[in-house]
Automatic annotation (TrEMBL):
NCBIfam families: mutl (TIGR00585). This is DNA mismatch repair protein MutL. Belongs to the DNA mismatch repair MutL/HexB family. Keywords: DNA damage, DNA repair. It comes from Durusdinium trenchii. PANTHER family: DNA MISMATCH REPAIR PROTEIN MLH, PMS, MUTL, DNA MISMATCH REPAIR PROTEIN MLH1. The lineage of its organism: Eukaryota, Sar, Alveolata, Dinophyceae, Suessiales.
Length: 627
């Protein structure tokens, strides 16, 4: 028995309680505090703000995986404190537990630098203004070298190279360069908005992304990040207190459509004793002592502001500027049009001859020129941006009115908004070609089509049906690799958040397959250089923003196949005819003709029905006509 107890004591050593080493402690802390390169940037920026810096420069390489360098002109670190700066739970921000309820700095835990130095190749250089030389400290994965004297300007410079080099599992979980830099840019933006009095610079791979001069006007910084279009529409609200997201939503209740949310920049200034900041390792959450007071204050303040604000939507239509055309210009355009028309009609020149010339003799001998047929090919029609092209409207044709057909008398393709050009057949030309009989249909509420089917009637949702048609066309083109793209003469530039811009750039290849060619245009601005010809009706800026929002929130969770399919759903919805849009009779007919060309015309891509049917028998039953 004694022997078995001794054996048990010796074999259970690994399960005994032990004191962890400083290295293991720091690695555990790094797992909480340092999630990705953006976490490092956040911690370093907050330290620079606490050091009373007036200028901070951030240099990033490879999305922060290879290099993060921050340089500030702050107070610097005392030479005797340099080693403590990378020691866990060593800080200059607090002294006692009571200080936790009076925190007035960005940081106070004293574990960020120690955690960063444990999982990177870390170098710190610092000099206080009164010192003649600086101090350099290097830490290689927790192994410290130094400190030693060095020459450097007043302030602090920290380099973090090869983040997670000694924890390959963590490094493997890093996302693409653009995604990681998007998160870095987001953290940079938050610090920049909260501290407009700082001069801030952000570079990526040697290229300046943001250079923000110091300003006392917050609106100036908002314009730099989000553009004048958004900044000039903000409603400035001031109060003694601020509060929470839910109060904001309540204040906007009834003012926004369901699913839409206000763009808000909320700045809180409260007494430190009213906030508990020690509830989250990265300080991403705080707790208010009395949140209800803040809630009610913000809600009432916003509502009062809205009552005094003109919230009417305004429609502004800029007058179209057209250059004045001279008589000579008009003639030149007419000549060019005639020449173009001749080239489109084979034999038009020989047909347009004087009746007394050779052409007239040939005609009299029985040599006639047939009227050219102009079936507007479906593939070509999809290159047109108007609804008629998208609805695949074919031009009604008329028989030749005589043995000769001139280019001018050719009706050409149908154009949206114009009646079909059907000419009456002349006595010499025989009977005109009959227009094919189409389904009898009418539009109600500019939303639904009511169709007489012979066996009853069918009510069709025009948007849902056209969305299904557009979806199947786009999907077929994508699968065949034949998406036709329209290059834009002037690229459409869209200002976005850093994360939305990164989401688009991360999926650049997938978007190119769909016909959307995007690229970075500097900062967080995205340029759209081409889009699918089938989507020329869609607002490109709105489409890009919606795609970016969707990709940022859910795109990374889907397979490539599902990702493409969901994007096709969205794009076809944006390009389809909308509810509330009045259709011409020709457009209604074209939409109905294409209905049966779909694999599943009964449902839109989102699963909603496209049509509801009421049979003749049901109508008779409802009106008591049975028997």
């Amino acid at each position: 028995d004694d022997l078995s107890r001794m054996s048990s004591a010796t074999t259970d050593v690994t399960s005994r309680i032990q004191q962890l080493s400083a290295s293991v402690i720091n690695k555990i802390a790094a797992g909480e505090v340092i999630e990705r390169p953006a976490s490092v940037v956040k911690e370093l920026l907050e330290n620079s703000v606490d050091a009373l810096s007036t200028r901070i420069e951030v240099d990033i390489e490879a999305g922060g995986a290879e290099l993060i360098r921050l340089t500030d002109d702050g107070e610097g670190i005392h030479p005797d404190d340099v080693m403590l700066a990378v020691t866990s739970h060593a800080t200059s921000k607090i002294r006692t537990a009571d200080d936790l309820f009076e925190v007035q700095t960005m940081g106070f835990r004293g574990e960020a630098l120690a955690s960063i130095a444990e999982v990177s190749k870390f170098r710190l250089r610092t000099r206080r203004a009164e010192a003649l030389t600086g101090v350099e400290l290097q830490v290689d994965g927790g192994a410290t070298e130094g400190p030693k004297p060095c020459g450097c300007p007043a302030g602090t410079q920290i380099e973090v190279r090869q983040l997670f080099f000694n924890t390959p599992v963590r490094r493997k979980f890093l996302k693409t360069t653009s995604t990681e830099f998007g998160h870095i840019s987001e953290q940079f933006t938050r610090i920049a908005l909260a501290n407009p009095n700082l001069h801030l610079v952000l570079r990526h791979n040697g290229r300046v992304v943001h250079e923000l001069p110091a300003t006392h006007q917050l609106i100036d910084r908002l314009r730099l990040f989000f553009g004048s279009e958004l900044a000039d529409k903000l409603i400035w609200v001031e109060s003694d207190d601020r509060s929470l997201q839910h109060a904001l939503g309540e204040a906007y209740r009834g003012l926004l459509m369901v699913g839409r949310y206000p763009i808000t920049f909320l700045f809180l200034e409260v007494e430190p004793s009213q906030v508990d900041v020690n509830v989250h390792p990265t300080k991403s959450e705080v707790r208010f002592r009395d949140s209800q007071i803040l809630y009610r204050t913000l809600l009432s303040t916003l509502r009062r502001q809205f009552l005094g604000t003109n919230l009417d939507s305004e429609l502004s239509v800029a007058p179209e500027e057209k250059p004045e055309a001279t008589e000579e210009t008009r003639k030149q355009h007419q000549l060019e049009l005639v020449n173009w028309a001749k080239r489109q009609v084979p034999g038009a020149d020989s047909a347009r001859t004087d009746s007394t010339g050779a052409g007239g003799d040939e005609s009299a001998a029985g040599g006639t020129v047939e009227r050219p047929v102009h079936p507007l090919d479906r593939e070509e029609r999809e290159l047109h941006g108007d609804a008629a092209a998208l609805l695949d409207v074919s031009p009604p044709s008329a028989g030749p009115s005589s043995g000769q057909q001139t280019a001018e008398s050719d009706p050409g393709p149908f154009v949206l908004g114009e009646p079909a050009n059907i000419e009456e057949g002349s006595d010499a030309g025989g009977d005109a070609t009959a227009v094919p009989q189409t389904l009898r249909a009418m539009q109600i509420h500019d939303c639904y089509l009511v169709v007489d089917t012979g066996d009853g009637l069918t009510v069709i949702d025009q948007h849902a049906l056209h969305e299904r048609i557009m979806y199947e066309r786009l999907r077929r083109r994508v699968l065949d690799g034949t998406v036709e793209v329209q290059p834009l003469l002037i690229p459409v530039t869209v200002e976005m958040t850093a994360q939305d811009a990164a989401a688009l750039l991360d999926h650049e290849e997938v978007l190119r397959e769909l016909g959307l060619q995007v690229e970075s245009f500097g900062g967080t601005t995205i340029a759209l250089r081409a889009n699918p010809t089938l989507l020329r009706r869609a607002d490109p800026a709105r489409l890009l923003r919606d795609v970016a929002d969707w990709l940022e929130s859910r795109g990374s969770k889907l397979s490539r196949r599902d990702l493409i399919d969901h994007l096709l759903h969205m794009m076809s919805c944006k390009a389809a005819i909308k509810a509330g849009q009045r259709l011409q009779p020709e457009e209604i007919d074209a939409l109905l003709e294409q209905r049966h060309l779909c694999d599943d015309h009964h449902h839109c891509p989102h699963g909603r029905p496209t049509a509801l049917t009421l049979t003749r028998a049901e109508l008779d039953r409802q009106f008591g006509r049975l028997g």
